Amino acid sequence: MKNRAMLLCIKNNIATIEEYARKTGVSPSRAESILKEEVVLTQDEIKANCSLFGVSADYFLALIEA
Fold first, then answer.
1. Given this model, what pLDDT does residue 43 score?
2. CB under 8 Å to 64, separation ≥6 — which residues?
3. Residue-wise pLDDT tens digits, 1-50
4. Where are the domains of the chain?
5. Which residues, including other chains, have CB under 8 Å from residue 34's CB and lie 6 or more apart?
6. What does the H/E/C string look like for 31-59?
7. Cα separation, 53 vs 60, whole angstroms
8. In sequence order, which residues have a C-beta less than 8 Å from that of residue 26 and are 6 or more positions away?
9. Rounded to 5 degrees, what angle do the CA atoms 9, 15, 19 make?
10. Spatial distance between the Cα atoms of 40 and 43, rounded to a whole number of angstroms
11. What φ, ψ does residue 42 adopt, rounded to 5°?
12. Which end of the chain has the lower number of beta carbons within 10 A, N or C?
């Protein structure tokens, strides 16, 4: 599923998959799949990312531009 997780990690100095996983409450393997846009995200994962990065779901899911 298209998302801006990788871009937002870079902008927020989240340097490792493990750090991203810890901050979003998912396993490292799930985090890697999210960053590679290989999975469909759950509502909870979308909410966790929006909260972590301070963005809307539409922005996180690349439905709108900033």
1. 98
2. 56, 58
3. 999 999 999 999 999 999 999 999 999 999 999 999 999 999 999 999 99
4. 16-60
5. 3, 5, 20, 24, 26, 41, 45, 49
6. HHHHHCCCCCCCHHHHHHHHHHHCCCHHH
7. 9
8. 34, 45, 48
9. 85
10. 10
11. -80, 165
12. C
Q: What is the pLDDT of residue 4?
A: 98
Residue 66 has pLDDT above 90, yes or no: no
- Under a CB-based contact definition with an 8 Å cutoff, are residues 5 and 35 in contact? yes
SS3 content of the chain, % helix, strand, coil (to 5): 60, 0, 40
The separation between CA 17 and the C-alpha centre of its own chain, rounded to angstroms, equals: 11
Q: Which two tokens stand for residue 22?
A: 């810890």
Q: Give the Cα separation of 30 and 24 in Å (integer).
A: 10
